[in-house]
Write a sequence for this structure.
């Protein structure tokens, strides 16, 4: 009975700018250190190398979104470039994930595209891949438009499709051949644009997975739901889809035993590893997805 109010509460906190500003001063408190791999590039890459040693592949995300000035966006772009350099220098098995609002999307679309070209070009030099995280619904079409523009020049960039959006089935059809991460969705959206019932979201999620796999497109199945994972395993066996065409993805700090078990079974398992001091919005969205994860926060609070 309390789950929905708790979700709404955490989503409210995730968008609270005053709390986010204060959190940057707190450091990784309230359990955040369990799901955020440090505040610096070096600490994040060190953790990636430890995960690689367990057979896990990774993607690094420098946390942050909604840059309000060009200076902030350029600083974020430089961090993305430095992260790619650090991945290459360490020989890490790791991609880059990013949010375009952090790179100036709300300031100027052309300015954001310029930043993206610099980042994707650097990744291309290193034979690496950049994943554009999907943000809230108001940025969905912009994201796909910019992706299409980048794909004219680069084949090492993809994005994320969220199963709770009504439009996602048509988006998947239009994006065949492009590597996609498929997720259920983590933002609070209205019933006009997004399914609200878990059963409907789960049903649509599996439909998207099947459609993208059957098109021959590389598919990243990002979920902690072991029921869906088992259904994917059965589906790929029945349709003779090779393990090289898909991977599972999970968040850093969640279901770590299952992550290692999937590696032992011969599947590619990629861990989404966030880092940085702008961690509050990310952490609150994780709480909203599964309010029982609030135990992380409580343990962190009482350990201070």
């Amino acid at each position: 009975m309390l789950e929905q109010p708790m979700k709404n509460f955490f989503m409210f906190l995730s968008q609270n700018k005053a709390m986010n500003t204060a959190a940057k001063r707190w450091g990784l408190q309230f359990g955040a250190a369990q799901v955020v791999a440090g505040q610096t590039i070096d600490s994040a890459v060190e953790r990636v190398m430890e995960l690689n040693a367990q057979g896990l592949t990774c993607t690094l995300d420098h946390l942050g979104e909604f840059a309000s000035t060009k200076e902030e966006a350029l600083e974020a772009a430089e961090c993305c470039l430095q992260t790619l350099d650090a991945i290459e220098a360490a020989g890490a098995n790791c991609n880059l994930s990013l949010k375009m609002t952090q790179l100036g999307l709300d300031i100027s679309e052309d300015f954001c595209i310029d930043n993206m070209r610099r980042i994707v070009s650097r990744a291309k030099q290193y034979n690496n891949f950049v994943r554009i995280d999907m943000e809230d619904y108001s940025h969905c079409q912009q994201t796909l438009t910019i992706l299409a523009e980048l794909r004219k020049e680069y084949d090492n960039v993809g994005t994320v499709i969220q199963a709770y959006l009504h439009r996602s089935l048509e988006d998947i059809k239009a994006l065949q051949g492009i590597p996609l991460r498929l997720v259920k969705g983590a933002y609070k959206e209205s019933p006009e644009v997004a399914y609200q019932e878990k059963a409907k979201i789960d049903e649509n999620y599996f439909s998207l997975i099947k459609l993208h796999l059957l098109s021959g497109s590389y598919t990243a199945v990002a979920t902690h739901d072991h029921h869906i994972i088992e259904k994917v395993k059965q589906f790929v066996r029945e349709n003779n889809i090779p393990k090289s065409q898909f991977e599972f993805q999970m968040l850093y700090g969640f279901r770590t035993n299952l992550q290692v078990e999937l590696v032992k079974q011969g599947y590619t398992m990629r861990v989404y590893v966030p880092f940085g001091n702008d961690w509050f919005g990310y952490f609150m969205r994780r709480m909203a997805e599964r309010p029982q994860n609030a135990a992380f926060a409580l343990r962190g609070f009482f350990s201070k």
The beta strands are 57-62, 94-98, 130-132, 157-162, 180-183, 219-222, 246-251, 269-275. The chain has one domain: 35-302. Residues 7 and 171 are 27 Å apart (CA to CA).
